[in-house]
Amino acid sequence: MTTIETTMDQPKKTNNIAATAAAKFQNSTSGFKRWGRKSPFIRYGLPMISLTVFGALGLGHLLQGSKDIAKVKDDQEWEITETKKALSRTGPVEAYKPKNISLEEELKALQQKVDINSYEYKRIPRPNEVKSS
Question: Which residues form a coiled coil (predicted)?
């Protein structure tokens, strides 16, 4: 008879374990709901703020990476150009020397090219007129 009693005790224990697990699950869900009602900042505000902060940090990190890549590419292109054309930062080495030109000299050169006192009127045809030549 003792074996029958032990087998009878076993299902009671498993049922008891399942019941306590179900009770714990219900308590945890109700506790979570209660937690949200007691302090809504922890349930709603804290996740929102953390998503905003971590999202901004993550985007900043991604943008910095793209800036670094662009800088490396620019440096490589500059080195290629410099080696091909022997350039300095200002242009070809000793190839460009600007002249010191004043505005008065430029005006005199333009006046010599164009005579504004002798001109003749020329009629410009309208777009809808047909050329007869």
Answer: none
pLDDT per position as a tens digit, 48-68: 999 999 999 999 999 999 899
The tokens of 22 are what? 């179900």
Distance CA 25, CA 29 (A): 6
**H-only helix segments in 86-123:** 103-113
Inter-residue contact 67 to 61 (CB < 8 Å):
no
For 4, the token pair is: 């029958």
Neighbours of 43 (CB within 10 A): 14
99: amino acid identity, one letter:
K
Asked if residue 69 is part of any domain, the answer here is: yes
Whole-prediction pTM: 0.34
